[in-house]
Design a protein that fits this description.
Blueprint: E1 2-6, E2 9-11, E3 33-35, H1 37-51, E4 57-64, H2 68-78, E5 82-87, H3 94-108, E6 112-116, H4 127-135, E7 138-149, E8 152-159, E9 162-169, E10 172-176, H5 188-194, E11 199-203, H6 235-244
Helix pairs in contact: 2-5, 3-4
């Protein structure tokens, strides 16, 4: 089996975010960048499937600027066999990302595509589902456990009501949740070895995919600061405030 893993270069989760003055996004200049945490989990799961003998090759793909090669090298150090960068300076939205991944999937012919359930920069949680729809493949989203059984995948999903288990026939698309695994640390020998692994760069224009944005950002603002609490003199006053000010009870 061949596994395709999609990863994204995002602002590091521990970095303090600054809003641009024009309120059209966040500052990315001179900011620490890293692999999207959910995609790290996807990469780790692909490596574990290969280590168990369920896969022969792992191909990792990313979309973005040339700097995304650094993220791909990290994925190669984790255990991917080769990498593909779809190079573009366009701000790629979920549907465009799904169409690009569809083109690469048709080119590479993997039996399984794994990606994080969402990117922490936009939190859209759409690309995996759109990709499965475009390919007309089975999908298992928010995976917290994956079991390989007789050429099928048993995926335990985290849903609002608890857990749901689905059995997927390959080919399939799986998106990963936080509790699926804990990504491994990168060892120095693996980092050095990753520099010798193949990394192919493809211009997004050559894929002939419609990258036109469907979403328009009106304004990006920081969340409102949380108001300080107050003390009340009695239960009756508390109930009154909850009822008339907070309006959380009737």
């Amino acid at each position: 089996m061949k596994i395709l893993v999609a990863v994204k270069r995002v602002i590091d989760y521990a970095t303090r975010i600054q809003i641009k003055q024009n309120q059209q996004g966040v500052e990315t200049a001179n900011v620490k960048m890293s692999m999207n945490p959910f995609d790290e989990i996807a990469m780790e799961e692909a490596v574990r499937l290969k280590e168990r003998g369920h896969a022969q090759e792992i191909v990792v793909v990313s979309i973005g600027l040339p700097a995304s090669q650094e993220t791909l090298r990290s994925a190669l150090a984790m255990g991917a066999d080769r990498a593909i960068l779809i190079e573009t300076d366009i701000d790629i939205q979920p549907l465009a990302a799904a169409k690009i991944l569809q083109a690469i999937t048709l080119k590479e012919s993997p039996q399984l595509v794994i990606l994080g359930k969402q990117a922490i920069d936009s939190d859209n949680n759409q690309t995996g589902q759109m990709l499965a729809g475009l390919l007309n493949w089975s999908q298992g989203t928010f995976a917290s456990k994956i079991i390989w059984q007789d050429n099928t995948l048993e995926v335990m999903r985290e849903i609002d009501g608890g857990l749901e288990t689905v059995v997927l026939q390959l080919p399939a698309v799986v998106t990963t949740d936080l509790r699926l695994n804990e990504p491994r640390y990168l060892s120095l020998p693996n980092i050095v070895q990753a520099k010798r692994k193949p990394l192919e760069v493809i211009s997004a224009e050559t894929l002939h995919v419609d990258l036109k944005p469907r979403l328009h950002i009106l304004k990006v603002t920081p969340p409102e600061k949380r108001a300080s609490g107050i003390k009340v003199a009695s239960v009756a006053e508390l109930v009154n405030k909850l009822k008339h000010e907070a309006q959380v009870i009737k």
